[in-house]
Fold Nicotinamidase-related amidase.
Amino acid sequence: MTDTLFDAKTTALVSIDMQTSVAHHAAAPHSATEVVARIASMIEPARAAGALPVFVRTTFLPDESDNLGPNLDVKRPRYPHRIENWDQLVPEMDRRINEPVVNKKSFNAFYGSDLDLQLRRRGIKTIVLAGISTNFGVEGTGRNAYDHGYDVIFVRDAMAAGTAEAHEASLKYVFPYIGRVRSTDEIIAAFKAQA
């Protein structure tokens, strides 16, 4: 292996919320379209190197009775009239039949899901993490990946938040303490070096 960033055969490329509704999210400093395109650009190199693409999506029952509902200072919106196919993966993800889709109901994709089981059954040690939103789904999942003992690599230009300030705060104050931060180009180069 010529690259030491990760061993592709024990690495999962985990995308957070690359689903239809993401096109309607505020996204900065990168647009949702840019984030989708950058994640999509990593998928085929990951496959070619033997890494596992994993697609995490947020989904609820139609009445959202399985949505979390604690008391909060900022009320999370409920969506009684969601757009059609809101929780389906965007076509750019080009998911293959043997690639896991993990359903999450919280900011942390490990909570109440089979994500850890899917990864451990396949011998995954490193998670390359990207998606929307940087400071919620990506950060929540990254913190728990760290707690589960995974090496985590955050793809800084393949994620976005509601504001550039929120995005940068996670990149500067959280991610370096629970993993490594790299660019899409660096991740693609590391996969291609092992293909």
The longest strand covers residues 151-160.
